[in-house]
Amino acid sequence: MDLKDLFRSIKDLENKEVTVRGWIRNHRDQKTFGFIDFSDGTCGEHLQVVYDDTLKNFSEIQKMLVGCAIEVNGVIVKSSGNQDYEMKAVEIKVLGNCPEDYPIQPKRHTREFLREQAYLRPRTNLFQAVFRIRSVAASAIHEYFQSHNYVYVHTPLITTTDCEGSDQMFKLTTLDFNNLPMIDGKVDMTKDLFSKTSYITGSGQLHGEAFAMAFKKIYTFGPTFRTENSNTKTHANEFWMIEPEIAFCDLEELMNIEEEMLKYVVKTILDRCSGEIDFCDQFVEKGLKDKLTKLINSEFVRITHRDVVDILKKADVKWEFEPDYLEDIAKEHERYITEYFNGPVFITNWPKDIKAWYMKENSDGKTVAAVDLEVPGAGELMGGSQREEDYDTIIKRATSMGVDLAVVDWYLNLRKYGGCVHSGFGMGFERLIMYLTGVDNIRDVIPFPRTPGNCEY
Amino acid sequence: MDLKDLFRSIKDLENKEVTVRGWIRNHRDQKTFGFIDFSDGTCGEHLQVVYDDTLKNFSEIQKMLVGCAIEVNGVIVKSSGNQDYEMKAVEIKVLGNCPEDYPIQPKRHTREFLREQAYLRPRTNLFQAVFRIRSVAASAIHEYFQSHNYVYVHTPLITTTDCEGSDQMFKLTTLDFNNLPMIDGKVDMTKDLFSKTSYITGSGQLHGEAFAMAFKKIYTFGPTFRTENSNTKTHANEFWMIEPEIAFCDLEELMNIEEEMLKYVVKTILDRCSGEIDFCDQFVEKGLKDKLTKLINSEFVRITHRDVVDILKKADVKWEFEPDYLEDIAKEHERYITEYFNGPVFITNWPKDIKAWYMKENSDGKTVAAVDLEVPGAGELMGGSQREEDYDTIIKRATSMGVDLAVVDWYLNLRKYGGCVHSGFGMGFERLIMYLTGVDNIRDVIPFPRTPGNCEY
Predict the structure, then answer these.
(1) Is B338 helix (H, G, I), strand (E, B) or coil?
(2) Are B171 and B237 in contact (CB under 8 A)?
(3) What phi and psi, each to the nearest 5 degrees, are found at residue A222?
(4) How far apart are CA A333 and CA A303, in angstroms?
(5) Do B189 and A211 touch (CB under 8 A)?
(6) CA separation for the pair B318, B320 (Å, rounded)
(7) Nearest CA to B123 among B238, B46, B201?
(8) Going by C-beta distance under 8 Å and a sequence separation of 6 or more, which residues neighbour residue A445?
(9) What percent of chain A has pLDDT over 90?
(10) Burial of A197 (0-12, 13-18, 19+ CB in 10 A)
């Protein structure tokens, strides 16, 4: 049986015989008995297996090394040691051996070393916790949206139109680089599979809006890509995004949704991954559990970009980047403002020239109805906006910002055919996991991270 | 409020005033009153809105066209017509106009026409049903695996190793096709973002196996890609796959899991999408509901490839492709065999030379422990196998099948470090949706399908 089910009903299992299959995480053998620290990966808890020399293959068991796959048949008994329950082995069989040079030994490994063992690191306590939280968080996101009448939409990965701009996008091809078809001295892209240049997407938003105009409330949850050649703790070339889009929804309602959704996810993680959160609280980010518990019970601050800049200007801090009413805010500002309010902060109404062309212009003519959610420790967690719903206004704004109208004509048409006030946001899934676990490097919350120069495994 | 919530509690809402926002699907206006067929996309049911000339903007309302976004404030009343309840309008406001040349008029459109209006077609009854079923099916898949202790793993999309072979894969690049860096007369791929040639994946299986060796039970659910230049009803270049991988699981147990999971999904769709299924039963596939109900209560047939070929050879049919003990079975054979058993059929133990290198060789030396699930109408829905867990055997098999061992050395190492009997399968999500809806063209179950020469929107 799965260890998760075993621990769920362990009281009922006392003095009963059960069979488990999993791996040896640690092994201490004495002369006439031994202890195996056993885990099958279905939960964070390990089972202590006790065996002694009454077992007929005692000497064989004694030689079993860390990493070995085993089947244990045994009786659940009250432990005399510090654990509540343990298993008294009746039979232990090897299912898969593991040699002495196994890289994942029961000691502290650096995260840098483990990154080089990306296919083995999920066997360590830290990555067991991180990837289990990642899985439950994904599930909680689906639960939230499904229970609120949203339709999950698989927007296309392969695209020729993208709201983030093609300079940030990977090109996709079936052509042979060393034998490219040429026409008039240029590569003939009509010979490619889609008869033109195609990309993998940086956002599903534009396609999501089309579906919001049919289903009212939709969300996407899928991988996105950026070609950014930057090696920081928060950038990866491949990451997952959640992009909800809601018809008949303005900026205020959008913030309500963002806040409610985030609280649901955090609450679910505290409920279902309490062991994992305790582990991360102890070994990754002291105070993590308090931070998350506080978030559920707090009301998020809502403040305009202008007022944020006011606060930053008044602050007794020597800034690397001077706060400016017309500029984006820097990492140092994000940090200051979330510490200032000691919790998550919605920053609204951003200067229009630094924000995307599809965002709704406010009546002041200077700002757009955009909102970023900043959270302590992780910075920007979500970015959203009310979308410009007026056909003539969006054409003007898109033109002035250099968008090729021909490529997005279908998107613009959504404003002609029963278009309405609507809003949406994007949440970087890895940012969320970093916030939930306290892990500060994006490479350590992605199963097999892709960063510049790094596409191993 | 959402129409879905309204219909859920419509009895309690009788004689109460509510506000809804959505779109006009049809409109019949008489001299002193009118009927609006209203939908907001949150459910398949439409609301009949009745208005009359006591409303102060009566003449304006009369001119509202199909496709118009409106807000209706009204009272829920028992209908005198054929519907149970309708809404008597107190106020109707236009939120977004729609012109007369709106392509989606309330009449029968061909699917070919609607494919050319991919951004508008989700507003039609058929695509409302299909994409709502798609969303609920995705949710049901997550529910099944999460409740059975599986960890959801986001295996990488960008990869340099892939079990399907790179000739079927899209290359990915940040290089400028018209200004490629050259070295020794060839393109210098070290100048690309990952310093080598990279691809977008055709399967997450290999990476999934690494995680199954840590978490025991995992599943993936993400997009996959094939460059296949084929224009059929069942092929797309981008599609979604579910790939579970389970440690300590042999072929028999794998079939149990496949069967249980599929039944759970079908049952969930019948429960939560009964209106959508009724619609598809009436307009897409007669008998659909019976087919799905029968599946839940049937036991899937399990039969070897050899026995299938025996049946095919004995059949009184003139085959286009002669059945052969050493060959794959053709579409016509799939059809025959599911009709023969009148239900889903697991076909096991396939000739080893036509199956992948990672599959476990059976003791007969001729077949591998692979299983395909064939379902009536949709053909192969899942393909799985027990994986070869023995290090020396898989090296031999991989070598003989021309696999570059250096590229998959980490994968092979999984057999060294506590490897064990394990199995997994892949389910094409679009095939599932085609089976659940009766829609026979893959282009009509994908929001924005990508097929050769076709990457619009």
Answers:
(1) helix
(2) no
(3) -160, 175
(4) 14
(5) no
(6) 7
(7) B46
(8) A130, A134, A430, A433, A434, A437, A439
(9) 91
(10) middle
Which residues 6+ apart lie within 8 Å of B238 measured at CB? Answer: A156, A157, A158, B223, B224, B225, B446, B449, B450
Q: Which DSSP letter does residue B407 get?
A: T
B364: Cβ–Cβ under 8 A, 6 or more apart, which residues? none
Sign of CA dihedral B311, B313, B315, B321: positive
Q: Can you point out the beta strands (E) in B102-160? A: 151-152, 158-159
pTM: 0.97
Query: Residue B52 forms beta bridges with which residues?
Result: B33
Nearest C-alpha neighbor of A80 from the set A53, A50, A124, A114: A50
* DSSP code string of A407-455: TTHHHHHTTTSS---EEEEEEEHHHHHHHHH----GGGSSSS--BTTB-
Q: Computed from CA positions of residues A286, A289, A292, A296, in that sequence, does the dihedral angle turn out positive or negative?
A: negative
> What are the angstrom distances between the C-alpha of A335 and each of A288, B188, B287?
17, 42, 60
The answer to whether the CB of A351 falls within 8 A of the CB of A306 is no
Q: Which pLDDT does position A165 carry in this prediction?
A: 64
pLDDT category at A80 given cuts 50, 70, 90 is: confident
A165 touches chain B (CB under 8 A): no
Give the residue on B whose Cα is nearest the Cα of A5.
B149
CA distance B435 to chain A (A): 18
Helical spans, DSSP H, in A273-384: 274-283, 288-297, 305-314, 331-341
The secondary structure of residue B329, as a DSSP letter, is P
Report the length, in residues, of chain B: 457
Which A-chain residues 297-356 have CB contacts (< 8 A) with chain B?
Answer: none
Predicted-complex ipTM score: 0.96
Mean pLDDT over residues A111-133, rounded?
A: 96
Rounded to whole angstroms, how far apart are CA atoms A199 and A196? 10
Q: What are phi and psi of A43, to 5 degrees?
A: -155, 170
Of B135, B161, B178, the CB nearest to A151: B135
Question: Is there a contact between A163 and A356 (Cβ–Cβ < 8 Å)?
Answer: yes
Q: Residue B1's CB: how many other CB atoms inside 10 A?
A: 14
pLDDT band at B81 (very low <50, low <70, confident <90, very high): low
Token reading at B115: 């494919």
Check if B232 contacts A (Cβ < 8 Å).
no
Residue A207 CA to residue B111 CA, distance in Å, equals 20
